[in-house]
Input
Amino acid sequence: MAEGNTSSRSSKWSLKGTTALVTGGSKGIGYDIVEQLAELGATVHTCARNEAELNECLNQWVTKGYKITGSVCDVASRAQREDLIARVSSEFNGKLNILVNNVGTNMQKQTLDFTEQDFSFLVNTNLESAFHISQLAHPLLKASNNASIVFMSSIGGVASLNIGTIYSAAKGAIIQLTKNLACEWAKDNIRTNCVAPGPIRTPLAAEHLKDEKLLDAFIERTPLGRIGEPEEVSSLVAFLCLPAASFITGQTICIDGGLTVNCLLLQ
Ligand SMILES: NC(=O)c1ccc[n+]([C@@H]2O[C@H](COP(=O)([O-])OP(=O)(O)OC[C@H]3O[C@@H](n4cnc5c(N)ncnc54)[C@H](OP(=O)(O)O)[C@@H]3O)[C@@H](O)[C@H]2O)c1
Output
């Protein structure tokens, strides 16, 4: 094979020279996405609410030699979202290649138990923050002339559960947002895709999965017979950001060991 071909093929699997913002990078899936993008060569900025935990991560990443910065931001606050993008713009000279809207949270309540405050909190954290951060980041993404947004949905936004309606509704809306932006922003060289994980071993899920009955019920319905690991989700997110995925936009990929395609597992 000619050398030129080899080098152009390997460049499809590299993020060298790119810039990225990943929200919620101090724990769980976000932590792994930050590391994965940095390993592929991106310079990454991340944020979280807890400053001490964020600083601990930043110190670990310095030791590993990654180009990663971070700032405290509660993405549920409109003003803090504006500060975050101003900071990213100044750090990356007004150009951003990758935006991963990773932050999300859940409340396992029955529909009749949700309060007005629960509704605002869940819709703001899971949907409005991702919408507004994308709006704010648009000029930076457009300026890079080669950009990719990845949204974080959930299997709760694809299939249905008999608990956590507001989370599922917000995650379903994220899937539609992904499709709309793929059409609206393609002209600006911005691709938008979405990842919908099943149960993944993170601090957020640990809360729910310590209920052994729930854990067993998930595993029993999952063809691959286990729950997922954060690095399995971050690999998919990284793939969607790579030049190798340059013709993929508007898509949602479930990463759930087959849970959402399963009707029945016969013994
Ligand atoms: N784990 C699963 O089983 C699963 C399944 C389906 C979908 N998901 C989705 O995957 C995404 C990540 O979930 P995860 O399980 O990795 O969550 P996690 O373990 O709770 O980690 C969340 C990360 O986001 C940060 N964060 C949370 N709220 C924030 C806010 N308002 N502003 C800024 N940062 C915030 C947290 O740091 P601070 O607390 O310091 O802010 C932390 O770094 C979410 O969108 C979730 O809905 C997860």
About this structure: The pocket of NAP is lined by residues 23-30, 47-50, 53, 73-76, 102-105, 125, 152, 154, 197, 199-200, 202-205 (CB under 6 Å). The chain has nine helices and seven strands. The two ends are 48 Å apart (CA to CA). The chain has a mean pLDDT of 96.
